[in-house]
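Hi there, hope your week has been kind to you so far. Thanks so much in advance, here it is:
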Amino acid sequence: MAVVSGLLAPSRTARWTIGVTVGLVFAVPFAATVLFTVASPEGFTLDRWAALFDPALSARYAPVWTGLVNSLILALVTVAIVLFLFAPTMVLVSLKFPRMRRAFEFLALLPITIPAIVLVVGLAPIYLQIGRTVGTGAWTLAFAYGVLVLPFAYRSIQASIDAIDLRTLTEAARTLGSGWGTVLLRVVAPNLRQGLLAASLISVAVVLGEFTIASLLNRPVLQTGLVIINKQDAWASAIFTLLALAFAFALLLVIGRAGRVGAGRKNS
């Protein structure tokens, strides 16, 4: 098997070629945006970057900072929904109701086929009741975002479930006297680490980049804040976009590193 995998793996030259090509695809627009934010008739300056953190101009950029805080809260709540509600449901379906997998998969992938504007039409009456019950805070968008990320989270988690013998692991743990809580937290979750991390990353990326639902439901998030700032200061909007991309890239590295550390401990 190792020999076959080695034959199928691309050569080092091919890997470097692919890596450099993909890197250039991402680096060129990123570098162009950086130049746009620092270029001026007099040369290059960082005054526009420094202005973002000037207390005297804090009111101008308040929509972005408020939206960023709301988006981070939404990301945390959405990831919690994926990890503590959706993932255990997938494990339950795989163990107890395997015949329902196709129907469950269809329902989980359905949101990706529905345009966001159509989702808003269906969600508007629901959010009217949510607003009357728990208020109109931006965090309530997590219920809609939980539906929006289902297709991406499903594929990531299901790939990890298919890669292990979930039934044997759970039956062995139950035979040794473990309760279902212990089985999920100490047996299933460590073996699904890669899928759970990937689902979390994708959920954060979707939440930070979502605009349509938040805009139509009148909730301030990062993307709506960027639109407001773009109408006032195009340079500031570009800088905030760069910072958001840098944050997403750093998050990708952190989660990828955590996944490798977990895999290394498991193999040892």
